[in-house]
Write a structure and sequence with these properties.
It is built from three helices and five strands. It has 125 residues and is an alpha/beta fold. The two termini are 21 Å apart.
Length: 125
């Protein structure tokens, strides 16, 4: 699966690509509601293609600032959908304290017991 999914708005952008069974999302700027909705749609298409095979998600978000509060529930639903379609692992490269806090809350809401700190990395490699 070598499809690419892209979105760009005035406030932020993302690119999603698949490398084997790893979905890599590069995200920059701030996530608006429109961006979150499109992200969810794209991610659901990708997740369905993997199912029932296991896959992993890598968020490269070094230049991501945060999501607007109204987008958080959309992102939570995207996370739950990934779990439903057999995403078995996730990892992130993030610097923004706000974005990390939002992701941590989403993971807690989805009942992920592992602390976010164990999923954060300084670089993509």
């Amino acid at each position: 699966m070598s499809q690419h999914y892209n979105f760009q708005s005035k406030t932020g952008s993302y690119q999603i690509e698949c490398r084997g069974n790893i979905v890599i999302c590069t995200i920059s700027g701030a996530t608006s509601v429109d961006m979150a909705n499109r992200y969810y749609e794209d991610l659901e298409v990708i997740a369905k293609k993997f199912s029932p095979q296991p896959w992993a998600y890598l968020g490269y978000a070094i230049n991501h600032e945060a999501a607007v509060p109204e987008a958080e529930s959309i992102l939570r639903n995207a996370y739950l959908t990934c779990m439903q379609y057999n995403c078995i692992s996730d990892a992130y490269c993030m610097k923004s304290a706000m974005a990390i806090a939002q992701l941590d809350k989403i993971r807690q809401d989805c009942r992920i017991p592992m602390p976010i700190e164990k999923r954060l990395f300084a670089e993509l490699n």
